Amino acid sequence: MAKHRGRGIASINYPIGMNLGGDPSQALVHSNPSGKFTVSLSSIDLGQGMKSVTRQICAETLGVPVEDVYVDTADSDTGPHCMGSFASRGTHRVGNAVMAAAKEARGVMMEAAAEELEVNAADLDTDGRGNIHVKGAPHRSISTKDVAIAAQFKQGKTISGRGIFLVPLSEVNPETGEMSPATCYAHACLVAEVEVDDETGEIAMVRMDSAYELGRALNPRLVEQQLVGGAWMGVSHALFETPEPYYPDPAHGPRDFVEYLMPGPGDICPHDIAVLERPAADGPFGAKGPGEMCANPVLPAVANAIFNAVGVRMDELPITPEKVLRAIKAQGGARPQARR
Amino acid sequence: MLELRKDIFADERDDNLKEIGKGTQRQDMLGHVTGTSTYFDDHKLQGMLHLKVLRSPHAHARLRRIDTMEAERSPGVRRIIRGADVPVNLNTLLSLINFGKDDEPSLAVDKVRYKGEPIVAIVADSPREAFEAMAKVRVDYEPLPAVFDVEDALKPGAPVVNDVYPKNTFVYHDVYDHQKLRFGDVERGFAEADHVLEQRYQMSPIEHAPTETNGSIAAPDTNGRYVVYTSTQALFFSLDTSAKILDVPSNTFHFIGGTVGGGFGGKVDTLTEPLAILGAMLTGRPVRYQLGREEEMQFGSPRGAERIYIKDGVMRDGRIVARKIRAYFDSGAYTRLSSYAVVKCVAHLPGPYTIPNVHGDVYCVFTNRTPATAMRGFGVTAMDFALECQMDKLAHLVGMDPMEFRILNAYRDGDMKAHRREAKNTALIECVQVAAEKAKWPLREEVKRMSSRKDGGGSRAAISPTPLEPAPQRAAVSQQRTSYDRAPPATIQQPSPPTPTPPAPPPPRPQAPSPSHGAARFSSVFGTRRR
Q: What span is annotated as the signal peptide, if there is one (chain A) (predicted)?
């Protein structure tokens, strides 16, 4: 009786946005008279950081500091239509809508600044710190606050913008399945190392190494939060969770977190992540979306690592100690594969 | 530990940005870490009532009689809601995008089709009084045979789960019980292959397990409007679904949400809003309906199970030449969103690899269990499990390193994908190379030099001759119009007095094109109405 280590890999891609498109999102951006901006949305922040990435996208596009932008979301009386926060669509769809709205608002802001500075708007640029200046002549500048005051009380202009993003709905061919499902794809590869106890069937995660390609990491800390959390959801899916442990027999369903098993703090392992950025042609600053796909490579990588450790193929999820032990017994003991 | 590999694809990016790429602290961080962010359930409204539903103990049963007499007299009970009180007691979520037929009642009327299906809703002064009244509802069930296995459900003579889909499968393109993918000729591929490997994979359901369970609070507002605080993941999706079920214009509702305690796909189904609002309409009081933990675990929709069969043909040198897939999505008793996931799954085949011959048949199957719904990786997660376990077995079969085997078969820019669109902006090879580097997994030099941007297209962009089955005669389009097109309601409901008098008979309305609306329904609120 012994513990055996093994490594397994999996590589995947994942479509961004609702399959086939047809899922619009809108955004409104406007300035108050102090030059502070509000983004109005009806999108949902599930904890993934929706409000933060749209705030950064708006600030970057307007050319103002992020502190000057506030995102107000999910009030159906004030926020324009959004399909919802699912299908890895938040960053890509809503981000693009915010970018379009912010571009329109920037156009008005630059026109208003041009009038104050008595120059052509095309000759102006923002410094990202709250000032608008003549290109090549930074001393000829005006603050966004003064521009907003002038626009509101002197020029009678609204510094505001509207944005929508829609990937037109694709048809599906009934006979061949020909279709345009998505405009861009995220990618990943993950290596899982496990330790399998051939006496109890228990599996311990040893470590994970991964590479995720996301178009653009708009906020690397939020990306890390998604990837680390998502990978653990994958481990949990692979080894612990189900409301129907004897599926398709529906009996013995858990009723609470005592009966519904998930990994605890003692079950976690180191996870080293590399992020690659190959910008998507239609992503906001090239961004795709890390939301859903980060869990996907973990499940097969863990199953493949178990094979490498003890030589059994686990083709049914979740991979419980009972299933592993039965499989090891059926093959007449652990058969560790070539170490890699 | 997170490392940004800025060196890769650097020529495709402008990294000269001011706010993008910075790890700015989230706008809502302080509220979250100090426990002061406002969630839907933080709204404690004066006079708020509590709604609980009686759920079926049977997986499949006819409802002979529902007796609520004693429950209605139970202390604290304000109102008992039955199926007949729901204005449009049949809906399918994707009617908003004109996909599928209405197949699910808010409250069961003639039959229950899964254990846990809501039958009556009780609105009471406290949750405890609602539960006490629930114990006094008498339901006379006639248990019916149930089916739980997706392949059993497809056998002749299997119990019919959902009368709207009598063959126990969602109907695609009005004629097929599955969505097809046909790209090249798999049978010819298998004949040429050095090895053929066929395997079966099974994923059981899983629960979203959010910290905050599904719920909402609805309250009467001025001008006949209702304000709704909700945990939804999709504000307008839930608003428009509620407007359809309650048959009022969408601007009757003011939905407020946006801060949610975990979704993962489990808060799209609009499980609580329509009944909470109906409760508020019928009592004139704020009504809260939140699932308990056991309800969330057992009857809140899970990620559905999938059964997948994969048959691959592979050459001795590691090239996969044919891949044939048959998969069954277990939708449970109603469609919800599984029909959509099937098409997404078909688009995903054969995974991120260039294979000249691919054949897919994916079914959305009805069984007598809790309806499944979206979850992180919807339509793809279980298929990726199956595909990547299969890839490992194939590499083992031909004696190749599993990393190199994936790089060899990986799709590249310019390749033709099985759904007949050119691959662009690909990066699978680079991900495998970087993961290998991080894990200190040795790759041969020539494999390290391969690139997603090189050697794609050409013969890899071709579509091989594809044999097709004869197409059956197509019936007339029976799909309903999108819910946004529905006829305006005949009357606009005002906040109800305790015993509302039926309004004057509404003018005749245009007949809805869907036969699923055929029944005349009686509602104590809205009167008899032709649907």
A: none
Angle made by CA atoms B301, B307, B310, in degrees to the nearest 5: 145
Asked if A83 lies within 8 A of B297 by C-beta distance, the reply is no
Angle, helices A220-239 vs A298-310, to 10°: value is 50
Do residues B322 and B193 touch, judged by C-beta distance below 8 A? yes
Question: Do A206 and A297 lie in a common domain?
Answer: yes
Please give the structure tokens belonging to residue B410. 């990986």
- The pLDDT of A258-271, averaged and rounded, is 93
Q: How far apart are CA A268 and CA B427, in angstroms?
A: 29
What is the per-residue burial (b if ≥16 Cβ within 10 Å, else e) of A170-199? bebebebbbbbbbbbbbbbbbbbbbbbbbe
Indicate which CATH number applies to the domain containing A46.
3.30.365.10
Q: Is the pLDDT of residue A297 over 80?
A: yes
Expressed as residue numbers, the domain containing A205 is: 3-16+183-330
Of B303, B300, B267, B282, the C-alpha closest to B40 is B267
Picking from B401, B231, B371, the residue whose alpha carbon sits closest to that of residue B300 is B371
pTM over 0.90, yes/no? yes
Predicted local confidence at residue A322, as pLDDT: 97
User: Is A176 within 8 Å of B183 when comparing Cβ atoms?
Assistant: yes
CA-based angle B282:B288:B294, to the nearest 5? 125
The β-bridge relationship of strands B287-290 and B49-55 is parallel
Select the residue of B183, B388, B430 nearest A10 (Cβ to Cβ): B388
pLDDT(B521) > 70: no
CA dihedral angle for residue B104, residue B105, residue B109, residue B114, rounded to 10 degrees: 50
ipTM above 0.95, yes or no: yes
CATH hierarchy code of domain B153-206+302-461: 3.30.365.10
Q: Which candidate, A221, A222, A198, A3, places its Cα nearest to that of A91? A: A222
- List A residues 88-127 in contact with B (Cβ-Cβ < 8 A): none
B513 vs B530: CA distance, rounded Å = 13
C-alpha distances (whole Å) from A15 to each of A57, A197, A296, B50, B66 are 21, 37, 12, 41, 47
The number of beta carbons lying within 10 Å of the beta carbon of residue B453 is: 18
Site of tokens 């905050």: B212
User: Given A133, A165, A197, which residue is the final one in a domain?
Assistant: A165
**Within an 8 Å CB–CB cutoff, is residue B33 touching chain A?**
no
Distance CA A10, CA B385 (A): 9
| Cβ atoms of A278 and B427 closer than 8 Å | yes
CB B144 within 8 A of CB B158: no
Number of Cβ within 10 Å of residue B224's Cβ equals: 13
Given a cut of 50, is residue B25 above it in pLDDT?
yes
Res. B480 pLDDT band, cuts 50 70 90: low
Instruction: Express each pLDDT in A114-136 by its tens digit.
Output: 999 999 999 999 999 999 999 99
